Amino acid sequence: MALLAGRLVKSISYLISSEFLSKFTSFLIIIILARSLSVSDFGDYSFITSFMVFFSVFLDFGLNIYFIKQVANEKKSASFYFSNIFFLKLMISSLVFILFLFLLFFVKRFEEIKLLLLLALIYTLLTSFSQFVTSVFKAHERMHFVLFVTLSEKLFLLSLFFYAMYGQLKLPQTFLFYIFSALLALLLSLFLVFYNFKITLHKIIPSFLKTAINYSYPLALSNFLWIIYFKIGTIMLYFFKTNVEVGLYNIAYSLFIAINIIPTTLEIALLPRLSTLSKDKLILTISQYSKYFFYLSLILVLLFFLISKQLISLLYGSVFVQSSISFKILILSLFLLFQSHLYNVVFQVFSLQKIILKTTLLCAIFNIFANLLIIKKYGVIGISITTLLTEFLMFIFFYFSFKKYILKENSSYEINKQTI
Questions:
Q1: How far apart, in whole angstroms, are the C-alpha atoms of residue 180 and residue 374?
Q2: CB contact set of 205 (below 8 Å; sequence gap of 6+)
Q3: Predicted confidence band at 10 (pLDDT cuts at 50, 70, 90)?
Q4: pTM score, two decimals?
Q5: Confidence of residue 78 (pLDDT cuts 50, 70, 90)
Q6: The CA-based dihedral angle spanning residues 223, 229, 235, 237, taken in that order and rounded to the nearest 10 degrees
Q7: How far apart are CA 14 and CA 168, in angstroms?
Q8: Residue 233's Cα: distance from chain center in Å?
């Protein structure tokens, strides 16, 4: 038992380290690009990366999670699952590529950035297959391989960007760097898989492909809703306004997302602890953590609100100081985000993931329509206000769902309800 617990702790630490490394590298690259590109070029970069995230959801299609789940229980069948799902991903990739070409040649707004979009698609395809191959490591609980591949890829990518800083960095060069790093990750992953695991080519079974799709498409739909929630604003801003405004907004939003790592990390840390508590004790504990989260978010909001201009100028350059207004609006939602992350943990503990999915769907719909109404007139400020309102809406839904599905059935509800 102690050995299993030790392996679990190691696996989690490797995965967290890998995730942190990816986020930190992305943060550094945003700073490098903001200081190297014009505001207009940075706007194009922000749009392209946001646009490609939608395609990455379809390329993944929830198949990585399905593969990990199946192989974890049937390691002897790893070759069967690997061959069939790899073939399925090839089919999906072909369909995505055809759809992408259709959009590329029939959407006039893409005329000036066709080459950049094609390069971004190549990177997205390579990353999709690389992430699938690394799923073999996760299924076999060999997370050190995941960390090794991530470390190799990100260090190589950073070295390319640091080298380019001495010259004049251009957008095509930027996406080529991404392609080279993704290709390295894919080749390295394939080498480690075939060298360390007995993976061989297996016959394709059509009936299995249908089973895999039936299992995976709800995951893909859920991920697609999350992407709409986080990225649709950038896409709409690009079509209704200018790439300059896209650049200004994404500086504020990227910094806001970086700060959001704090409540996200707290959520991950709280999940195993809260999962072991009884219902009565869980509600009391949530009440306590809710207060702690409020005070922590208050300190962070006041701090970042006061230093927003100086922080943005220091990190991204004085040319992006205008983004501080948008950042101040976004940072106000930190109060709501901390509480929403806390409710998110509770719903997972009580296996109420459907509440999270429904709430995300409603908030995504609200976000789209609110942006349609406000973005043309108010631009960057408008989209920031919409994001704040969407976070408020999510908090309200989570709060009343918590009262309805958890507090209502608790015998101590009358005692505890005023503390939540």
A1: 40
A2: 80, 84
A3: low
A4: 0.74
A5: confident
A6: -170
A7: 36
A8: 15
